[in-house]
Give the backbone structure.
Amino acid sequence: MLATRRTLRHRINASPALVFADARSYRKYGFETSVRGPWKEGVPIIWTFYLNDGPFEIENYDLGTTTHETACRLAGFREIRWHPTELSAEGLPTYDPSFWSTFLDHPPIAFIECAR
């Protein structure tokens, strides 16, 4: 009898549900997003993170839900689950829950879990 090993992958990416061209400010969370070019799938999204020793940028791209799921299936994953953005228990004592409202009401990230 052969043992099967289940392969799980977790990924965090720009949320396909958010129109970053219209995104709110996330500066109070330590970053901002901006879009280079007209809003459409594939447009670059620039994430600027503000650290104590200065800012740095990461370029990401807007990809729709179907594009994410197609890529996961082409990579051999059968099960794909999207998870909502949630506030951890550690985040509650640091700031009032209203502090997190922009991030939770308009999450800029998406959590994807895939299994083979």
